[in-house]
Amino acid sequence: VQLQASGGGLVQAGGSLRLSCVASGLTMDDSTFGWFRQAPGKEREGLLCISSVGDNTFSRGSVKGRFTISRDNPKDSVYLHMNNVKPEDAAVYFCAAYYPGRGVARCGISQQLYDYWGQGTQVTVSS
């Protein structure tokens, strides 16, 4: 299994950015995906997830209303749409995945749930 995150870079505060995660070796229809980030000197935190059933999503409070997650199974891809980016959003962003089991329509952002991780993509925010 491989998860390849991309799309990071420099963004101005208030701007937008879209991160992509391409998965290989996974059964997309059965996989739940999440986005995480780790800022310098801080622990990695879960941000959003999208379920394998019904595309249900969950967002952390600090990014709710600004960040969204989406998936395109035929393209083996998951996306993080970042809007109204703030300086505190600067971090390395990771995508991750797990198999939740058949029929599970919810997802979680606890790192312990996730079995597969990408390598991360850096997001830098200029103010």
Tally of contiguous helical segments: 0
Main beta sheet strand tally, sense and closure: 7 strands, mixed
Oligomeric description of these chains: single chain
Query: SSE string, helix = H, strand = E?
Result: EEEEEEEEEEE
Could you tell me the radius of gyration in angstroms? 14 Å
Annotation, overall tally of beta strands: 11
Overall shape: it is globular
Mean pLDDT: 96
In percent, how much strand structure appears in the residues? over 45%
Low-confidence runs of at least 5 consecutive residues: none
Please bin the fraction of helical residues. under 10%
N-to-C CA distance: 37 Å
Question: What would your notes on this structure say?
Answer:
The chain is mostly beta strands and 127 residues long. It is 0% helix and 48% strand. The chain is built from no helices and eleven strands. The strands form two sheets. Strands 2, 4, 5, 6, 9, 10 and 11 form a seven-stranded mixed sheet that branches. Strand 7 (67-72) and strand 8 (77-82) form a beta hairpin. It is globular and about 45 Å long. The N and C termini lie far apart (37 Å). The model has no long low-confidence stretch (mean pLDDT 96).
